[in-house]
Amino acid sequence: MTPHTPVFCSIVPPHLLEHLARSSNAAVAATARRTLVADASARTFRVLPLPGTAPTPAGTGRPHRTVHDCERGTVLPGVKVRGEGEEATGDATVNRAYAGLGATFELFMNAFGHDSIDGSGLPLIASVHYDENYGNAFWNGEQMVFGDGDNEIFLDFTLPVDVIGHELAHGFTQYSANLEYFSQSGALNESVSDVFGSLVKQYALGQTAGQADWLIGEGLFHPNVEGTALRSMKAPGTAYDDDVLGKDPQPGHMDDYVRTGRDNGGVHINSGIPNHAFYLAATELGGSAWERTGQIWYDVMTGGTLTPEARFSEFAAATVAAAKARYGEGEEIQAVLKAWSAVGVPTD
Q1: Is position 268 annotated as part of the catalytic site?
Q2: How far apart are CA 65 and CA 62, in angstroms?
């Protein structure tokens, strides 16, 4: 498979880091600025030609994981510390990264018959302990990278399994619909990662749509932070409201769509709208969210009908068509239609 355009995608949006960089707490501000600089460097690195070639896909229906330790430096991938099938190490961060790669592989393989994130057994690579107090995690087009956080705002980025699933799902998008990382297609790119990141967590915990918390990054904030997660698919705009972090800016309806030139046109903000549509459809249908609603979204991403610059209405119409193709004129298509209508996105 020929790789599609790789994009640097981080779990913590730049608007949140920029807010922290203006904090009156000098330590918090300094760490946020350092993270922003590191992100800018990593993003630029992806624009340049990379030496060597991508790993050869395994294509075995089994995961092929490798975890590296950056030892608080920024040279990737770092020192290899755990390979596929090897015993757990004494480093909990390494072991969580390894387990999270596996949980993501299992969702895609077992729920959708998709062999790794590219469908052809792509080896999954992660690097931990990236930089000093780095407050982010990202997919750089080839691998996962995790920071340790500053232990004042953010904890270790391997703690929430949905963060791992979210970032690897950017790879899934890269190898399937290849949605451009700007404006509405970029918000869809982010939303798809939130959707499949949440499904990784739900699948690993054996939760139904009704049992799930629908939070992205729950457990990532330090206990002193007034917030539960980075984002809420159930109630966009309510994930955090903190003196240092500010307030969650995500809308849940097109009436509140944010028009901005920052963050590639607000990709981390406006993703709340399609996120909420998925939540509404999944909870309307009940049961395991990966079984029907997740299958519809998967069919759209892998069906070859989306344009890279797809807008919300194009994606919504594709989910309706996918629901009809797989399930006919039943409750599935009605749930999807109702969900998009509830967030103000037309489907025709």
Answers
A1: yes
A2: 10
What is the mean pLDDT for each group of 10 consecutive residues in the chain (348 residues)? 67 91 92 90 54 52 96 96 98 98 98 97 97 95 95 97 97 96 97 98 98 98 96 98 94 97 95 98 98 98 96 98 97 98 97
pLDDT digits (tens, 9 = 90+) for 209-240: 999 999 999 999 999 999 999 999 999 999 99
User: Which of 122, 92, 86 shows the shortest CA–CA distance to 104?
Assistant: 122
Enumerate the β-bridge partners of residue 231. Answer: 216
Indicate if 19 belongs to the active site.
no
Q: In this structure, what DSSP letter does residue 219 have?
A: T
Question: Of the residues 170, 268, 314, 332, which is catalytic?
Answer: 268
Residue among 114, 142, 166, 167 flagged as catalytic = 167
Burial class (CB in 10 A: 0-12, 13-18, 19+), 109: middle
Decide: 137 and 181 in contact? Cβ < 8 Å.
Answer: no
Number of C-alpha atoms within 13 angstroms, CB side, residue 316? 26
Contact 274, 301 (CB under 8 A): no
